Structures are given as C-alpha cells and as structure tokens.
Amino acid sequence: MAELEKRFDRAEEQKIYEKWEKSGYFKPETNKGKDKGEFSIIMPPLNANGNAHLGHALMVTIEDILIRYNRMIGKETLWLPGTDHAGFETQVVYEKVLEKEGKTRFDYERDTLYQMIWDFTESNKSNIKNQLRALGSSCDWDREKFTLDKDIIETVYKVFKKMYDEGLIYRGNRIINWDPYHQTGFSELEVAHKERKTNLTYIKYQIKGSNSYITVATTRPETMLGDTAIAVNPEDKRYQSLIGEIVILPIINREIPIIADGAVEMEFGTGAVKVTPAHDPLDFEIGERHNLPAIQVIDKNAKMTAEAGKDYEGLHVKKARAKVVETLESLGLVEKVEEITHNAAVCYKCGRDIEPLLSEQWFIKTKDLAKRAIKAVEDGEIKFVSKRFEKIYFNWMENLKDWNISRQIVWGIRIPAWFCECGEIIVSEGDEPKECPKCKSPKLTRDQDTFDTWFSSAQWPYAALDWPNGKDYKKFYPTDVMETAWDILIFWVARMIMMGIYITDNVPFKTVYIHGLIRDSKGQKMSKSKGNVINPMDIIAGYGTDALRFSLVIGNAPGNDLNFDENKIKGNRNFVTKLWNIARFIQMNAPQAKEVSRETFTIADQWILSELETLKETMTKHIEKYELHLAAEALYDFVWYKFADWYVESSKYYLNDHQTTGNTQGVLRYVLSETLKLSHPFMPFVTEAIWQGLELSDKMLIIEEWPQKEYKRDKAASDEFEIIQGLVAKIRNLGLTKDDSHTIQKKELENISPSHIELIANLARIKKINLS
After folding, report:
1. Is 528 annotated as a binding residue?
2. The pLDDT of residue 539 is above 80
3. What NCBIfam families does this protein map onto (predicted)?
4. Domain ends where: 355, 381, 400?
5. Residue 457: CA atoms inside 13 Å, Cβ hemisphere, count?
6. What phi and psi values does residue 24 have, to the nearest 5 degrees?
C-alpha cells in the first residue's frame, strides 16, 4: 500500500477518470441483473458554439450526483450526453468570426457556409467533451448524441410530417418578430425588451364629412401609413357615437372605419388606437376579427415600401418616423407630443430593434398541445422541484400563441417542404419528391428555411433514445429527471412536455429539477461585457474539481440563484483537504482492516456510529427528495465537526490503549469507508483516490453499494458523549495548557461514567482532571 501524499494531487483526477471510463462503469449495463429498476437522465445538450460555463458546471454536478447515487443503489443508470447545434445562436457566433475576416454570411453559398459552421462546431464539441470529463461527468459517452445526427434529423422530419398531416402545423402569413439585421424571424420568447425613452405622438384623424377629429396616440407614427382602421373600446362612452363613422387617413388620404373592439385599453393615450394589421401583433388580431386589409409599409430591411407612398419609399423607419411627424405638424394634425418610457422589442442576442412584420412562416397550433401538457402537471405525472415554478409554467401555457418554427438561417435542420408553381405544398420525411401529386409537375422548389432550434430540441428526450423502436427508448423512456436552469423553463421544458406527450402519449420525464443562475459575488448576472465571467476550468486548475462541485451544491437550494464567491471555493478546498487528512491519519494508524467487536465499543465508538447512521438516513432522504444542498450540509457537518474534530481526536486516546487499539482501528476504517461512499457523488475524485489508496475494497468506489443501516443508534451513549463534549468545550475555553490540571465538581459527572475522566482530559488537551 503506497502512502498517501500530503495533499491530493489534482493531476490524479484525469487518471481516475480514465480508469472509470475504461472500466465501462458509466454504462447502465453495469448494474444489469440487480433488479433494482432503472434511472435515466438525458443531459440538456450544451450549445456547440463555445465552452462550458459555470452554469453548465452546476448542471453537470447536480446530474452527476443523482446518477452516481442511483448507480450506487443498484439501478441500471443511464446518463446520455449530447450537444445542440443551437441554430441561430451558433450562426451569430460564427458570423462574428467572419466579421473579423471582413466577410458576412451572404458572401458564401448555402452549402459552403453550412460546412464552415459544421467544422467550427466539431472543434467546439471536442472541447466541451473534455470539459465535461474534467467536471467528473460519469455519462455514457458511447451513447453521445448531437442534434444534427442523422437519426435525430430523421426523427424531426417524421414528427414534422405527422404534425402537418394531422393539421397541427400550417404555413401562414402572420405577424412575426422580424430581425432586420440578422434577416430572420423569431418566436415570442426570443425577443428581449429594452427600456428606453421615446415620443408618444397624438395624431388627429378627420371624421369624414365634418370638421371634427378623433385623436390617437402612437409611438410609431410611420406605421400610420399602413392604417386600415381606428379602434375604440365598445364600453367607452366617449366614442360610442362615432363607431361606424369613416375617418380620413392623414397624408395617404385613405378612408378607414372607426370600429369597436374589446382589446382596446381605454386608459392608454386617448382611448382610441390606430390599427395597422401588418405591423403590430394586437392590430393583426383586431384586423382578423374585423376582416381588415393588412397593408405592409415596412420591409424586411426596416425600410418603407411603395405602399407608404413615393415620399417615404426607401426611407429607414427612423427617418420615416421623423418625416411623418414633420409632415403632420405642417398639416396641423399633431395635437401634442409626450416623452414616455416604454419597453422596446429587441433581438435577444445583439440588442438591435425588432420589427413586427407580416411574413409567410411555418406555425404549430399549440392550444390542444398545451391543454394536455397542463393536465400532466396538474395530475402529478410531472413534478417540479421547486414547486413554485409550476405557476410560471401554467401561466405561460394558458396564454400560449401559435409557435413560429421557421427561421431564415442556414445553420440547422432544413425544413422538408417543397413548393409547386400550382400552389401545392409537399411535405416529406426528408426524401425529395419527384413530382407534384396535384399537377404532376417535376418543377419543385425546396423551402430555404430551417427549423427553430427549439423545435428539434423539444424532441430531445425521445429522439436521443431512438424513438420509436430503440432499446433505450423502450427501457428508459420516460426519463426520470430533466434538470435545467429556470431561464429556459418556457423556451425548452414546456415545449418538451408538449411534444413528448403528443408523440409518445407519455410524459418525457417524471421530475423537472430547476436550478438557478450563477451570478458574481455581488449578485450581478455574469456576462462578457461586464468582464465578470468565470471559467470553471480555471477554478478546477486552482482548487480542484471536488472543491468546485461541492461549492456549487452546498447552500444552493433548487431554483435559487447562487452568488459565486471564490472564498467559498477556498473553504471547500479545505473541506476536501480535511477528508484527505483524515484518510492519511487512518492509513498511518489503522493500515489494515480489523474485526470489530460490538461488545468492546468505546463511548466514542458508540457515538460516532450512531451519528453515522443518522447521516446515512439524512443524506438518503435528502437526495431522494432532490434536496442536494441539505445532503451536502449534513455531510460537511459530519466530516468536519463529528468525524474529524471529535472521533479522530478521541481515537488518538484509544489507540494508545492496547485493549481498545484493534477495535478503534476497525471503527476508524469502517467510518471512513462509509463516509467515502456517502461523499462520492459529491466529491468523486478525492473519494476514489482515498478508496484505492487505502485499499478499502477490491472494487472501485464508483460501483460500491450505497451505505445501508448497519448499527442500531445508541441514544444513551450518544447523550453521554454529548455531555463529555460539553465539558471538554468548557475546559478548552479556559485557555489551559497541556501541563495544567483542572478541577471539576463531581455533580458535573453525574450522568457519565468516571472512567471517561482521562478521555476528557485528553480531549481538552490538559494534563489531568481533579474531582472536588
């Protein structure tokens, strides 16, 4: 047996990981035949456009703890890793690479650009894989998936065609969020909002055949060129007599009606609103209800169209806005202008303005899908940890709009749809149709758009398991846990639930574990622009993986954001060192396994074994309830304050007595062995190193069994030892030295055996105790 080094060498982590991986212990087949059931997690796929960050480190730590625990309790445990092509986000990252070379994506043919981005992501995927290994991820790399794998794409195509054939997917001309800079549409969720000051302009519209006017307030005067109505609330008494009247649209001189619609807020502006169905989501809905025409006056480059009139055609919206107001003022049609603060819609990646535009896109009808997804959570088929996130989930699902799933980008899964000149749309499972089924024409044009990355990601749980006939799908679906951050609860989790239930008629997972965001020590969100981003690999290099993992879990309740402080890492590095030093002490003082005799247990033995049984029960309960932070706190308290501070110190006294030496050595090794098993899911590297270094078993710790109840708690002995602890603490507080004696009254020893006086003196680090 080689002697443990003074400190755990972080360089050993890679060697330990390689042993685990080569052993095949990451595979679920490790526990085949144990009949303990199955446990599975499909790893949320990391975006293949960069490196793992601290949020990923938290995700990996939580999932690895659950996987290692379930592997140790004997379940066939599958943790399937993967990466996401992350369509738009990856293309934006790569466009920045091109910018440095003085290029744009429009300088390349579609296939060339696609291959360039593919090569870029392949390099990143390799880096991510190495980072996940460094974090200790015990996932089955032989089952690794990428969202652009051939089988994943085939699944996405099958699902798309099924939904299209069943009328759940349609192609329509609807208002979308359009990004003029990136030249693509977005769903509601991909639009950020930036608070900014703007002008609220009050514009007068003349009522036809009279000298009267109706005034509306707008922040987008340039869109009035596309107005097709004025709307008022039917309950608004100020305007009831005007409903049905005609007004003259300024500048354009088009006649438009005054209509009544309950969606109008009477309290905003004047209570009358201009209706521009082609450039506002609410106006589009009003337009549909009242059969209003939609006149598009802004194009995809955020410039005015010919419909805006020759004086405005070609102007950027901001210049057009100023010119429209100037013209209206010259006509005496501006009643007033107020400065207000409002939330402007911007691109969530670059912060540039979003334009609501009419566009031909692919949409999913979500109403019926949402109903089933809501019911699954209401009925308890899916549980949220923490439960408070159910409210957010329900609120979003109950107000869900049709989902725009097409994107005008190159990188991603191209939509398998073809258009014929006769107007027919042909959707396939990927194979190019030879002719139009309606007119038999062979002249078909494939859709240039790709799927929203969230559409393919929403199918991750069943697609990654090889739905519908794969062995893993049949064995591990639905999975047990989907663990992710709260900021993509709606982007991703809700959509996985909808799609999973629709396709498989079953929930995709049984528990949703939500973790919070990691912020800097001041509570600020980490971002490159703030310069406060921390690379987890730097933390690992400085403090070791186990210190990082333990710091990410302890004190971090599900769903709560975590302020990351390097001092916490230092403290938990000391905790790792404490466990290492306990092991070194035991290796020196109890190098060989000893038979333990229950009949000759010391008071300290009985106390530590009782505490250990409590720890086993406590940690098991907390892990089963996904309270990993509480399990970690219980472990920390036991190792530092009970095992190290009290039992190891007591053992030094008993090891000097030949009558108790053997038993004490046996208990030391037993308690260490059980403690390492309990610690392993949280701190896998140092525990495995100790396990092998002390030759505690001929098996690797990763496949050892989770500790079971073995000793009955001895309450009387525990109570007695706690009295001893109290006396020791009192004496230590006196500041006596090892050469001093101390006198205590006999009544202080009423509830403990006099035979423990020498132990008390030893623990108090004094020469002798006298009785008065």
Report:
1. yes
2. yes
3. PRK05729.1, valS
4. 355
5. 25
6. 85, 10
